[in-house]
Amino acid sequence: MKPINVGLLGTGTVGGGTFKVLQRNSEEISRRAGCTIRIAVVADTDIVRAKGVAGDAARVTADAFEVVNDPQIDVVVELIGGYTIAKDLMLKAIANGKHVVTANKALLALHGNEIFSAARKQGVMVAFEAAVGGGIPIIKSLREGLTANRIEWIAGIINGTSNFILSEMRAKGAAFADVLKEAQSKGYAEADPTFDIEGVDAAHKLAIMAAIGFGIPVQFDKAYVEGISKLAQQDIRYAEELGYRIKLLGIAKRRAAGFELRVHPTLIPTGQLIANVEGVMNAILVKGDAVGQTMYYGAGAGAEPTASAVVADLVDVARALTADPEHRVPHLAFQHDQLSNVPILPMGEVETSYYLRLRVADKAGVLADITRILADQAISIEALVQKPHDGEEHVDIILLTHLTREKKIDAAILSIEALPVVSGKITRIRMEALQ
Q1: Where are the domains of the chain?
Q2: Is 245 in contact with 271 (CB distance < 8 Å)?
Q3: Which CATH superfamily hosts domain 4-135+303-338?
Q4: I need a labelling partner for 323 at 20 to 30 A (CA). Which of 174, 209, 280, 359 fits?
Q5: Cβ–Cβ contacts within 10 Å for residue 172, how many?
Q6: The domain 351-431 belongs to what CATH superfamily?
Q7: Once rounded to an integer, what is the mean pLDDT over residues 241-258?
Q8: Which run of H or E residues covers position 8?
Q9: Neighbours of 124 (CB within 10 A)
Q10: What is residue 328's predicted lDDT score, i.e. its pLDDT?
């Protein structure tokens, strides 16, 4: 089989790692792929950086469109990121009959349906293992390894930055703002960390996994997204005292009326393996009806872990080049004309349990008023803890509820906050047993 010529777009952290891994393990990779895979041309507006990565092993250009229009290039690896130029380059490469490998979860979350449709019409592949979970082979597991299963739910720590912040807040008793600065100094968080700390990055990845797991179109715009920037240190401490840890989870669940698609801070029992995933590591749980619960753990970012997934995609493309396009693994695991139109449920219809922290006046009758409001919404209490008052007029009350609908807890919170004995806003954090 003739060598496969690859055009690499972007030589940042992942691009540089991809070039390095492909060069270092070229013999092993060729033995697995059945042919030589070589990066023939590299594109980056930073020519000096690109030449530093490629050396004399590949041609370097500042014009990425030169690469996607080059008839000698078989596969384009897009590692530029973003929604604009990356989309134009990817669609142009597909229109030119080239296969594409990408780590761009944001682009796929917003425009994946359009991109996959274009690729299917052209008979080319779009491979994106590196878009979710870095080096963790979660996409391949969902698309192929678990294909016999009806996926019931997916829950994962899929953003290393937020997990590092929550781990440090718990371990050091530090405030969110202080740990965020530490994450930025270590290079775990960007100068503008919004996508990470507000849950957007996790929602991008969750939308892709849900599409593959459930056989639905990619629907990032339907996801509920809530980040960790408003979490208080005392809630992390209280959760720990009650036997829970707080993690930013991406959760997708199959329900009778539709699918849940949500990202938010979540209390998880400390006995769960995923509750003990610390630092920048990622972990994803998948529950299938036949296999039961499976867990995928590893580095969710970084040069070589992500490059591992990029190169694995290149090998998959090489193996499938001679296959009939109609008999390749579909982009979203299910045949394109078999995707479900079952809706994503609005957040008000989501069912889960809740942690509520209230600041209330330390006087008789307060608990009776609160429990009456919860009873009116048919919300039952699993546990109730009143913290010592330490001489103050107001005290913290912690409530853990049984399973209920979000719209019921919303109504209850509004009524409780209106009580004259309640000070300020109620802190609400969702809970998941993950059983």
Answers
A1: 4-135+303-338, 138-299, 351-431
A2: no
A3: NAD(P)-binding Rossmann-like Domain (3.40.50.720)
A4: 209
A5: 12
A6: ACT domain (3.30.70.260)
A7: 97
A8: strand 4-9
A9: 23
A10: 86
Ramachandran region, residue 390 (left: φ > 0; alpha: ψ -120 to 50; beta: rest): left
pLDDT of 332 over the 90 cut: no
Residue 83 in this model has a pLDDT that exceeds 70: yes
Q: Which pLDDT value is given to residue 323?
A: 72
- The dihedral through the CA atoms of 222, 228, 231, 233 has a sign that is positive
- The residues, any chain, with a CB within 8 Å of residue 277's CB and separated by 6 or more, are 157, 163, 247, 283, 297
Whether the per-residue pLDDT at 403 is higher than 80: the answer is yes
Catalytic residue among 87, 205, 247, 287: 205
Do the Cβ atoms of 160 and 282 come closer than 8 Å? Answer: yes
Is the pLDDT at 325 greater than 90? The verdict is: no
Token pair, residue 362, equals 């330390």
pLDDT, residue 391, reads 65
Alpha carbons 49 and 15: distance in angstroms, whole number = 11
CA distances to 171, 181, 237, 279 from 178, rounded to whole Å, are 13, 5, 17, 16
Q: pLDDT tens digits, residue range 335-350?
A: 888 889 999 999 999 9
Query: How far does CA 343 lie from the centroid of its chain?
Result: 20
Question: DSSP label at 273?
Answer: G
For residue 362, the model assigns a pLDDT of: 86
Which residue is associated with the tokens 């989501």? 350
Instruction: Output the furthest CA–CA distance in the chain (Å, rounded).
Output: 82
| DSSP labels, 376-416 | HTTPPEEEEEE---TT-SEEEEEEEE-SEEHHHHHHHHHHH
**Topology at the third CATH level for domain 138-299:** Dihydrodipicolinate Reductase; domain 2 (3.30.360)
Q: Is the pLDDT of residue 227 over 70?
A: yes
Q: Is 205 tagged catalytic?
A: yes
What confidence tens digit (pLDDT) does each residue in 119-161 have? 999 999 999 999 999 999 999 999 999 999 999 999 999 999 9
Where do we find the tokens 């274009």? 118
E strands, 128-216, are 151-157
Which is it for the CA torsion 33, 113, 137, 67, positive or negative? positive
